[in-house]
Design goal:
single chain; alpha/beta; Rossmann fold; 2 domains; six-stranded mixed β-sheet; 39% helix
């Protein structure tokens, strides 16, 4: 009886001890489980930040939203605040490691912190990490300047660009001029980073409404770039792509690059229905001169009516300029417009006749003196532009190459992204 009593008494002690150890054991389990997750998340966050840094460097931007999208893909349950993501873009002149390097580069430093919910938060009785634990990581990506690019901005100066819009504080064309100046500054900065000073990024501007325009011998001339009639004659000079004309679409496309064609006959101001001021600015690396021209009254719109839109005219002239003058291995034409074509039927039939394909194929058929092929691309960036309502730009360059932007910064960043895609390679 005494043995049974002692055994029963000891069993009670064991049960009490076991119950006391349960919180400790479970605490060790929770710490081990969530601790292992934290270590794993640390490694995954490093990968996510590396990918995010490559993305922002590839775009040449400090876009926190872009980096955040990558982090949220890796950690869908985590809490990620914008303030927990820091992106630092360091120019070469501010980076000792760049100045001592033969190859010039931008450096992008991305730092991020996430708050990851725990599986076992713990309580007063059981130890744990709480409701969430923080994980942080950092990555550095360099974008080297390995290529130079010729850029033609085909800029809409039709009457609709006189209107105000929600995406900026100014009229559309004034915001457009400011954006062009920013692009010129960025290309000038890129040129300063080139180790080989004989290589230069160049920028040219083509303004358009119904026409393109050139200034020669103190006279402004206008060009429709169209051929009309089966006998291939000049089109009517007022609204040349309008319904009163019988545009010869095949002949127009055939003669895109034939500068002696009747399609490119110069007309004087008194002969045309033009109210806007704009002119060709040939490809140049003199960005200061280009900015002076853009900021002058040489590029101006004085009324919201009377001057229509024909982006095909700007595209044709831009293609001619980059084909004649382009010397760099990368060539980029970017159409900047609100997309409101005045003569949609004419534009659509020109596209169907091969307008855009002919330009694309011609530019990409070029070879450099060393035998390397030139790589040319065409994009469109819209001011407050609805692709569904105005499909001509998308039909021309491809829907994947048309970018809708709702504000000035979006447009600027998209153009810089397109340019930096062409001129650099990434390294970590």
């Amino acid at each position: 009886m005494h043995s049974y009593s002692r055994l029963h008494h000891q069993s009670g002690h064991a049960a009490i001890l076991f119950s006391l150890f349960i919180p400790v054991l479970f605490g060790i389990f929770t710490l081990g489980t969530d601790g292992a997750r934290a270590i794993q998340d640390k490694a995954r966050l490093l990968e996510a930040v590396e990918v995010a840094s490559l993305a922002v460097a590839g775009q040449g931007s400090d876009n926190v939203d872009l980096a955040k999208q990558y982090l949220e893909y890796y950690f869908p349950a985590a809490t990620i605040q914008d303030s927990d993501i820091q992106i630092k873009k360091i120019n070469c002149e501010d980076n000792d490691r760049c100045q001592d390097n033969e190859s010039r580069f931008f450096e992008y430093q991305v730092t991020a912190k996430i708050s990851q919910p725990t599986w076992f938060p713990g309580n007063e009785a059981i130890i744990g990490f709480g409701d969430a634990y923080d994980v942080a990581s950092r990555s550095v990506t360099r974008k080297y300047h390995s290529e130079t690019v010729d850029v033609i901005l085909v800029a809409d100066f039709s009457a609709s660009m006189y209107n105000r819009w929600n995406g900026g504080s100014k009229r559309k064309f004034l915001d457009l001029k400011d954006i062009i100046v920013v692009i010129a500054d960025e290309l000038d900065s890129f040129n300063g980073y080139m180790a080989d000073k004989s290589l230069k990024n160049k920028l040219g501007i083509v303004g358009f409404d119904y026409y393109t325009s050139r200034y020669n011998n103190n006279t402004r001339y206008f060009y429709s770039h169209l051929i009309c009639g089966s006998n291939e004659k000049e089109c009517t000079k007022t609204n040349p792509g309008g319904s009163t004309n019988s545009v010869n679409y095949s002949a127009t496309v055939r003669d895109i690059f034939n500068l002696n064609s009747i399609a490119h006959t110069p007309w004087q101001k008194r002969e045309v229905t033009n109210i806007s001021s704009f002119e060709d600015v040939l490809l140049t690396d003199d960005m200061a001169s280009l900015k002076t021209k853009i900021n002058s009254n040489s590029f101006n719109i004085t009324s919201g009516s009377g001057s229509g839109t024909a982006f095909y005219a700007g595209l044709i002239r831009g293609a001619q300029m980059i084909y004649q003058q382009g010397e760099n291995p990368r060539q980029l034409i970017i159409v900047l417009s609100d997309g409101e074509e005045s003569n949609k039927n004419t534009t659509q039939k020109l596209i169907q006749a091969g307008l855009c394909k002919t330009i694309f194929d011609k530019l990409n058929s070029q070879q450099q003196s060393n035998g390397d092929n030139v790589k040319a691309r065409i994009f469109a960036v819209g001011f407050d532009y609805n692709v569904n309502n105005n499909p001509q730009l998308a039909d021309c360059v491809g829907a994947e190459n048309v970018f809708q932007a709702q504000n000035r910064d979006d447009i600027k960043n998209k153009i810089l992204e397109l340019i930096t895609e062409e001129i650099g390679h990434l390294a970590q």
